[in-house]
């Protein structure tokens, strides 16, 4: 064992890792350790409260009153549905008229439970990609169905016949792997998958794309595009838009850098644009959203704006662009969707939604109405190629106390030559709400408020607080603080029946109730790419300072004290709360840390970790390890520190982050004498930690029951 640092932070740059043996994911000894820890945790948490909590969450997840969200392909509306009778789920479709009724008649395409029984594989449905009808005499006949054997990212892709409701004998069948498969035509697909040595990147994703003809072995098909092994991934797809057919290849250099190529005159032509700019090719338009200030034709455009150009002209060297959206200090662009004659923008203003439509070529923004404050809303095209409903859009709205609703509206037709407008656009009408999800908890007497904390560098950090309208500010309110702070992911208001049931209005024998808080810290996308890049790599500490500032603000306002404050996060959010555990232990009374990154020394060597170097840095570079080590919870652990009780949970089948970082963190804490750490590992469920509603309910209830127990009976402080 090498000598460790004696600095006050107790950082260890270990050449020997005592717990490397836990990285053998399916090894006998590691799995015996996992089972022992599972028993220990289940003994701690098992009881009538946990059973009741799990059952109530499961009833909510299985409720037939949920909105069956749909996507339109041709005359049918497709949905994937799980309930008590179909825990693995049904892939099904119906007509619009039937969907509008209280009891739609569903045409079941794939019964995943029945398929699992027949094939003796615990399949988890991972989506389907339909073949366009222009390749099958105008009919929607085929699909590529993705199925995971354990809920992980590795899937098997199989060709499915929509008419016979069967997988096509002798059809396309790509074995289980991290892969992407997409249609070229009825007899050809693009396949990016594991075909043996040299075919995958260091990030565990495909680096080669092959064009596979029907009946051809994948490994024998020609490689049409490939990327270096140290890049993240290669992808190729065909744009099937009638009149604008083209093949596009993407070299995903890292999580935020993509080199886009278009097949032209028998060769790949790379789009001559900063590869950190997000691009969207749609019909004749090229949309660009820069992550940093972008200079074109001597004009600087800010990060997070949206620019439009004629795609053909741009690729021919013309750099003329038009500004579609320009953010300010309070607003950001979350996404967009094309109808036949319009572009719909989904934006945020201080983390509340604002929606707009605009006519391509004119680019004047028209607000879409009907969004309450402190709510999230999104709008997207129903089917921009349908001649009858090409300008229709779906509309959803949700809030922390507002169950989701789904509506549909229609934007006016714009006459004139293709791709032009004649200024005849009329104001958008408020869409009709068609379905509303039920309330799963009693929100009477509860309120949602927005507050701002001041971080260590003076930045104002917004956060939402959900709790009793007349909350007594005595510091005694059990409070759950949630956050993420990474990959430009925004935490926006949204209804969670599970959180309402288990935290805001629990109904067990102890009559518990709590306050729920969501922090919109840097590293996320709430204020656009600059909010994200402010917490990258050597500036990662800003995300953690922001989260700690929100915790301190809750203390300052006497919402809670440290002993009454829990925090929870998963994945990158698991790294977040792992840093709360090791760097800010005095602020919290309990921590739930799920499917987490924790060992930042080895994260690039585990599962898909290498693909996140652009977010965290490369620990193999000594100068970068110097700052990464300051937010590596596994290396920040100290036997002399006093940590709040922690539940660390994961899944054996998680092939994105992997279970080993969670295992090693818990094992090291126990080895150091921290007996108030609990560990639990599900066998399947992948990075989500659950493959069906029962598993999801159990996971949610276990995490919340742990935090309730620790806040009610503080120990180990």
Automatic annotation (TrEMBL):
InterPro entries in the record: AB_hydrolase_fold, Pept_S9A_N, Peptidase_S9_cat, Peptidase_S9A, Prolyl_oligopep/macrocyclase
Domain Peptidase S9 prolyl oligopeptidase catalytic positions: 513-712
Gene3D superfamilies xrefs: alpha/beta hydrolase, Prolyl oligopeptidase, N-terminal domain
Annotated segments matching region Disordered: 406-429
Keyword check for Transcription regulation: no
Keywords linked to the UniProt accession: Hydrolase, Protease, Serine protease
SUPFAM superfamilies: alpha/beta-Hydrolases, Peptidase/esterase 'gauge' domain
Domain Peptidase S9A N-terminal: 9-405
PANTHER family: PROLYL ENDOPEPTIDASE (PTHR42881:SF13)
Name of this chain's protein: Prolyl oligopeptidase family serine peptidase
Organism this protein belongs to: Kocuria carniphila
